[in-house]
Write a structure and sequence with these properties.
By secondary structure, the protein is an alpha/beta fold. It contains 18 helices and 13 strands. Helices cover 47% and strands 14% of the residues.
Length: 549
């Protein structure tokens, strides 16, 4: 049962953490937020040391802290966090790790973003007090990524060392996937799932935890290896994240490819000692190594600002990083070959995404070439009939909830938005989406453009930019997305389309519920064949003009 007095529940998974958990708990007890406003839930994930006894002793010494100790057989940190979330009583769930010591303002900074009702999750940051070169390198690596995230209004990547989610959303989306039995990418995968539904996730850099980073190159390599290993599975579920996410620098992927090329070329070049015609490969080896070194320069420059010693170990540590992640990903890809384990499947597989995007680019170029003369004629007609701009721009919500500006030919009078309250009571609509038949704001030219769908021809530009697809769900308005229930948000997992199941099955004559059901069915049973069928059915629908209002 949810408590009305608690602000948040802090969940800490621990496994054989007798030497570290007390530091974490002491930091949680020293928060600026009053103890009565938060609870601490520690989940012992089958520890074989004195972890449980240390926690019990600490709880007796701090009776003013609301601490619950849960125990389970060893199942991994993902399962442990889920166990804690299920027992939590507060509306906000905060996560940190047993080897982290949150700074005194951590809870305050971690919960602050949720004053915005649109925020579903937040990510904090690491700091460290360690002085060794390896942990300082690790900290610099994290801060490089924080710099990347700082300017983004919305992120898609949250690590659980300093994380927060709305409990209702966390539970409705089934929490972390327990298939990840070691600390690896379970936190990334969950945040990708939420981002795919368009939930707003933000970076809260002031929510800092002091962490004990890897103290040796061996520890660093091992951690990165397992991240790469499990990432191979996660990418099977979220192939779009192979291209980009808000946390991972693109140069890292380049470095992994360059190192792989270097490893492949070096043995062949060595054969040149036996067979001279292969000696030219030494030039390829040197060029690849030089390219790798050049990619390290921006980060090494940042390291040099901290200390010359860090700058010196920078390039070799980046080699270790690329080797660990790359080898882990390769072994993971082999290990998870075939049908991925678990119940999750990608909305659109990697090869389907590639084919779909290729079709979009070709189709958009052809569409623009054909439609430009028609749009030019329509533009003249629009200007002759009524004052105002030729094009109408509006913010819509695209793939993963990203807003973009959709472009259409203007079909209404210039002050159409201002006149809407005269025609519709937006506060008392039966459904959030609506279409007005015989809308008096539509101009005579606009009716022709809508009847022929020529008003949407400029959207080939949105397709070419990658904001839309030729086929997909209807591009939704922001105000409607805010009214979505969780299962409705599945339609944000793909790019909106110029045409789609709605357009070939009734268009404006469909109710909001009918349209949503068709679009969700399209996503859940996606195939390229279905895209081609919708494209072919679109032309007869345009000719008949059914549902065009």
């Amino acid at each position: 049962m949810q408590s009305e007095t608690l602000l948040c529940s802090v969940i800490v998974p621990v496994y054989n953490g007798a030497g570290a958990i007390e530091r974490c708990l002491n930091a949680l007890a020293a928060q600026t937020v009053a103890p009565g406003r938060y609870e601490v839930i520690v989940v012992d994930d089958g520890s074989t040391d004195d972890t449980a006894a240390v926690i019990a002793r600490w709880r007796r010494a701090h009776p003013h802290i609301q601490l619950t100790l849960l125990s389970q057989a060893n199942a991994g940190p993902a399962a442990a966090r889920n166990r804690g979330a299920a027992a939590a009583r507060a509306p906000l769930l905060l996560f940190t790790d047993a080897d982290c010591a949150p700074t005194p303002t951590w809870i305050e900074a971690m919960t602050a973003p949720f004053a915005d009702p649109d925020v579903a999750g937040a990510k904090g940051a690491y700091v460290t007090e360690q002085t060794g070169l390896v942990p300082r390198f690790v900290q610099a690596e994290y801060e490089d990524r924080y710099d990347r995230m700082a300017g983004q209004a919305q992120i898609d990547f949250i690590d659980t060392y300093s994380a927060a989610y709305r409990r209702a959303i966390f539970l409705e989306n089934e929490g972390f996937d327990p298939i990840f039995t070691t600390a690896s990418v379970e936190d990334q995968e969950f945040s990708f799932r939420l981002a795919q539904k368009g939930y707003r996730l933000v970076f809260a850099p002031a929510a800092r935890v002091s962490h004990l980073h890897d103290s040796s190159v061996r520890e660093y390599f091992r951690r990165k290896y397992y991240i790469g290993f499990w990432k191979a599975l996660m990418i099977r579920w979220h192939p779009e994240r192979m291209v980009q996410d808000s946390h991972t620098p693109q140069v890292l992927k380049v470095q992994i490819v360059l190192l792989a090329a270097l490893i492949a070329l070096a043995p062949l070049a060595l054969l040149g000692l036996i067979w001279p015609p292969l000696n030219w490969l030494w030039a390829a080896v040197a060029a690849t190594a030089l390219l790798f070194l050049l990619t390290t320069l921006p980060f090494v420059r940042k390291l040099a600002q901290r200390s010359p010693a860090l700058a010196l170990i920078g390039p070799p540590m980046l080699v270790v990083r690329a080797l660990a992640l790359g080898s882990g990903y390769l072994i993971g890809t082999i290990h998870f070959a075939g049908t991925p384990p678990g119940a999750r499947q990608p909305v659109i597989s990697g090869w389907q995404r590639l084919v779909k995007r290729t079709i979009d680019i070709v189709g958009a170029l052809i569409g623009l070439t054909i439609s430009i003369p028609l749009v030019a004629i329509a533009a003249i007609a629009i200007k002759l009939e009524s004052p105002g701009p030729v094009f109408f721009w509006q913010v819509r919500i695209g793939e993963n909830g990203r807003p973009f500006r959709i472009v259409k030919l203007r079909t209404m009078v210039a002050d159409a938005e201002a006149r809407l309250p005269e025609l519709v009571d937006l506060e008392h609509l039966e459904e959030p989406a609506f279409k007005l038949k015989n809308d008096p704001r539509v101009t005579r030219v606009g009716r022709i453009l809508r009847r022929t769908s020529l008003d949407e021809a400029p959207q080939f530009y949105n397709v070419l930019r990658g904001e839309m697809s030729l086929v997909g769900p209807r591009p939704e308005e922001e105000r409607i997305v805010r009214l979505y229930q969780d299962h409705h948000r599945k339609r944000l997992a793909v790019k909106p389309g110029m045409t789609g199941p709605m357009q070939v099955n009734g268009r404006g004559d469909l109710s909001f519920a009918e349209r949503l059901q068709m679009e969700l069915d399209y996503i859940e049973h996606y195939s390229l064949r279905k895209d081609f069928e919708i494209l072919l059915r679109t032309f007869p629908v345009i000719i008949r003009g059914n549902g065009a209002h």
